[in-house]
Fold these 4 entries.
Entry 1:
Amino acid sequence: MTNTTHSKNGKMVVCLNVKDLKASNEFYKKLGFAQIGGNIKKEWSIMNDGENELHLFQGHVSSNTLNFRGGDVFAIAASLKTQGLKMTSDAKKESDGSDGAWINDPDDNTIYFNTAPGERRFNT
């Protein structure tokens, strides 16, 4: 068991930057995923296979991203900074009203902490 000093990160969702949303939707349906949300006309889709959630974005994210949803974004960012990590974008209230913060791992993978107003919290 890992001893961690920061808030729980929240629920992890993999966000993929796709070239063709319709083709990607069809591919993931063949892997057992169903579309449970999103807006194809606005080029994003939420897929779920009963256990795993996958977000597909055409033109909305610049790279594949691990998105942690429902955590206390400000507490997580503060904890990471006290551990000597540099945030790509510090915790802030975003234009859509959600709390968001960005960091990159040592391999430059993007990690996004985000919690929308009214979203289920996973750290309580």
Note: The chain is about 15% helix and 40% strand.
Entry 2:
Amino acid sequence: MKRTISAFTLVAALLAAAGSGTLPATADAAAQSASGFGQTHLGLAFRNFAFSATKRADGTVTGQAQLYRQDLGVLVHIELDCLHARGNLAVVSGVVTSTNSATLPVGIDELFVVKDNGDGPDAPADEITLVFDGLGLACTDLPPDPAFHAPFLFPIEHGQIQVRA
């Protein structure tokens, strides 16, 4: 019985590897992507976040972000429409599509920056800025320069950020 299970596992692994080959030339592969989840503390109540954005080869961007500020009970959903990544840093922006806050109405623009500091137990924590709203800026209005954003980035707690430029 053990050999049958091992043989089945080997066949399944080989099939999975064969099916994970390169995409055909007609597939629209992502040119850039950024995604993550976690929370920040900043000496205040926790702020939870989750987001995913993909920029296609033709320049179109699709994505979503969900933000929750625990102390105020504020929940905001953002349709992401701009992603500008370089190296391990990504600038992301979009528009609020759902909210329970009168101070963050539907339609207001939002912008934030994330930094992927690698994986593993010895890697420093990934980082995120606060979410800036109502600035009228798209992600391409800010340079994806780590030195420019360094003063605004905070380490995340209990999460992970991935940036693919």
Note: Residues 117 and 123 are 6 Å apart (CA to CA).
Entry 3:
Amino acid sequence: MIDDNTLVSVVTADPMDALVLAPRLRKPDVAEVTALGKTPLQALMCSFDLPNSKVYSILETQSNREYSKIIAMFGVSDSVEVPEYGVPWMLAADKLENYSRPFLRYCREWIEEIHKDYEVLYNMVHCKNNQGMRWLQWCGFEIKTQRKYGAGGENFYLFLREKKDV
């Protein structure tokens, strides 16, 4: 609950959520998926077809509306190269920034949730996505090497997070 009228929640995603979110992605997210050679819709839809994928939507529900708005989608899937490793991702609308405090409060719990089945989480982040890199570091990921990646051969950074020994 954000206030008396607004609830932000996480639910299992439906492919229809991708259709709704795709045209409203943040500019850095659009730049990142474009550099990978995909449209926003392709990037969101392909997440449902990845090995052992778990895909979630973040919804904004206001009491004066009959429907919820999809403000972000995120998930994880098995790495094709190393199945014990997971590949997390997140794409969002600008509207997510309206809920930055609760998002930051709960996102670490979700990182732990998607990390529980994998020894390592890793992916690539576009070199110009400074906000994304700061968030990844705040969530316990390390930003590693930079390399050319994707369809356009643009610079990306490898990020990873190893499971902590208990």
Note: The chain has a mean pLDDT of 91.
Entry 4:
Amino acid sequence: MFRLKVTKDSYERTLSTKEANECYLMITKDALKLFPPAGKTFELRIGNHVYDAYIRSMPCTCMGPDKPHSHYYLEGDYKERVKWGKGKGINIKRLSAGIYLLSQD
């Protein structure tokens, strides 16, 4: 079952099939408020590992040329530490300004 939950200090969601197959993590528009502005680097912790990460904004016309918008993705060298799979849960918690913890369930 798909899960999406955004609070002032956390972002929880279930990986889609496309995300799992292509090894990327989409950040929903309502979750942007949790992160630094797009392009600004922050610290992402996964277990005992620390990575530089950032939110990438990508222009899109997937809803047609009359409805341009952007999609947002979590970028960085963290991807080798994620267990990619359809339906896997991703949890990102803001620990303090500029420091985040990614865990999976």
Note: The first helix runs from residue 17 to 22.
